[in-house]
Amino acid sequence: MPTLLDKDGFKFFFYANEHLPRHVHVIKAEGYAKIELFSLQVTENFMKPADLKKALAIAEQYRFEFGRKWDEYFNKR
Predict the structure, then answer these.
(1) Measured between alpha carbons, how far is 63 from 54 in angstroms, rounded to an integer?
(2) Domain residue ranges of the chain, discontinuous segments joined by +
(3) Residue pair 59/12 in contact by the 8 Å Cβ criterion
């Protein structure tokens, strides 16, 4: 489970057996969400509204870096 970023209590990661479209999983405390990288569409959400808003802002800030890391990881396999 490659960790992409730990920031402000949020952990962004993807699993080693992921599927398209490119997306990240994010957890904070007991909250969880799944966010598509380039559209920033939330496909699963179990976070408080304020935490989801912050997670989306972080995902937007890092989405191209996350996408690059996704490509590097899955193109090596």
Answers:
(1) 14
(2) 3-75
(3) yes
